[in-house]
Amino acid sequence: MDSRFSEQARIRSYHLSAGPLSTYKSLALRELENWCCNIDEEKKVISDIEVPFPSSVDDAIDLVNAHKTIPPEGQTQPLTEK
Question: Domain spans of the chain?
Answer without folding.
Answer: 13-66
